[in-house]
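pipeline/complex-builder :: batch 7 item 3
reading input block
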Amino acid sequence: MEISLQAALDLLNPAQREAVVASGGHLLVLAGAGSGKTRVIVYRIAWLIAEQRVPAQAILAVTFTNKAAGEMRERLLDLLGREIEGMWVGTFHGLSHKFLRLHWQEASLPESFQVIDGDDQLQSIRRLFKTMGINEDRFEPKKIQAYINRKKDEGVRANQLPPAENPYEKVQQEIYAEYEKVCEKNGLVDFAELLLRCYELLKNNTELFNHYRARFSHLLVDEFQDTNGIQYQWLSLLASPTSSVTVVGDDDQSIYGWRGAKIENIRRFEREFKDTRMVRLEQNYRSTSTILAAANALISYNPSRFGKTLWTDGIAGEPISLYAGFNEEDEALYVVREIRRWLDKGRKFDEIGLLYRSNAQSRVLEESLVRSGVPYRIYGGLRFFERAEIKDALAYLRLVVNLDDNAAFERVINVPPRGIGDRSLEKIQELSRECGVSYWAAAKEAVKRQLLTGKIESSLRGFIAIIQGLCDIVLEDSLSKIIQAVIHDSGLLRFFKEQEGEKSQNRAENLEELINAASDYELENPTQDELSPITAFLSYTSLEAGDRKSGVEESAVQLMTLHSAKGLEFPLVFICGLEDGLFPHHFSRETPTALEEERRLCYVGVTRAREKLHLSYAEKRRIFGRDEERQPSRFIREIPENLIEETKRKVVVRASAFNESAFGSQSSMTSMAMGVESEHGYRLGQRVLHPKFGEGNVLDHEGSGERTRIHVKFDNYGSKWLALAYAKLEPV
DNA sequence: GTGTAGGTGGTTTTT
DNA sequence: CCACCTACAC
């Protein structure tokens, strides 16, 4: 295995090799986009283990996402040919979680503490508002949530805050303090708390502090430009005077400042970790020199950079295309036309990335893709474990393992609807406050005291019976069996199955999928000692929300925001909506630092492209229902003109992509999108002729029989809804 | 207690 | 414009 590692090292460029084999002291790797950053970090770990004889358990490697951690583990396995046992690999949150599970007593947490995600956190803040009698109009729960997380990310507890300067701040602080109490009481740990708690534990517990500092002689952090305050402190604390810290990052790709990432951490590292060697990875292996020149020019408008200049010995390739759409639909049609041209060259759908600044932009693009039969996959929206129905099922599970979990109780007491509404819940809550017991205990008490009317009481009895029944099987059954019981006995599955509509059917399917997720989890994580499998699974669902992309594994164009494109690459990339106010976003226009971050975001987008880059904007765009004139983004002007080739728009705006022949055999969606001929004889995308409005394309239809109306986009008259019975339309 | 009409507001997202 | 949430009628 060392032979293959040596062979692999020989293929690296000098800078990469220097970074991989640097020894003694700390290492800061400034790795430009596409410069082989991940490879370097993986090889470095392999080199430490295989060549330097560093024991695996002395290594701690931090990544930013679970996916990245998984990839790292996999690549190490490939390289070393064996599992790297004892090595800690994961996200800051994942590692902190592991740490707290191992040392829950020292951290003064209950053994079965629960990890809550942002959604749960917001809910508990909402609940807090109610109990504290705070008006949601004056204090938005979301703002308070952001405030609490910001403070925790800075490492500041409620009792460490400076005295409030105004009444608003005072209330904020009070809520923070109260929130801490509630979490403490219920054994809940939010994401920021994982880090803070872990940090405090290390800081205050000398024994653990000494142990872990001695253990981890090598610490490595990827995506270092995205670390926040507490993460930096966490790292500093864990690094002993004799350990070696490697951080890898790119200041030019820091795009998460708005959620607390501190780009300054790079400079701070250089300053505070003495004896740091800096290595720059500037050779790019991804993009054509044209694309790279554009990226370099763009990012050079940002002052105060570390100053890397990416270069490549690759070919110039094609110029960057720029298209000024008449409106956003025209822009979308341009995208479709260019996708088609790409396909005509024998290329594939999955080589294409379609990027935009905000999710709202995806709709128009999607519509255009559907109509022309382009298969696509969209990243964004809720992930599996974040879906409401899944969270409902998991809340049942939470309640079953911990009957005192009031949040879980509140979530499921009337889901599916069983006639126990706000009024009855309030009664239970009141009783709970009076007796100083959990909602669950109060509910049982309410039945005993006959506080509720007959119908509601029997519903409540039913609910209690369900939960108790589930409690009984928890001890003897496997995780997936328990989940199965949960979704059946709770009535959730039946509820969705009985409801009409695709949405509900989908939810029912998701619930069934949850059983699979649980049994997969069981297979991959054979009984972790001590920790109950249910608690472990619940933590897993919070920490790793599951995949974002929808399941179908067909070659498809990938649509996503620029943020989610980070770390990916595509032979062909479109960046849409390059308009002033959209990208850069108008919220970011005011402050220079925000604008710089937007520019970095654009830089990220540009550097995703390997072969060909398309930039586009619309001269008119519907913003909140209003047609507005748009100006091209300044980022377009910041790219040298000689790299750009502007595509001229046709004089008449035509929805012409529709009629062109299908996308060849690659597209199985084509028939679905284009071939469906409705009862009235017109199909989507078909050319039609109107005596007054001239020619156009069918966009949509609704109704049937005499009431059929079809939506036609005319070449010269815009788009109109026409009643088929009256309009004298002819197919062309 | 539950469904639907009006009002509101509307970046980026991982853990 | 559209999705989400809150306020009222059944």
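note: Residues 652-679 of chain A have pLDDT under 50 and may be disordered.
queue -> next item
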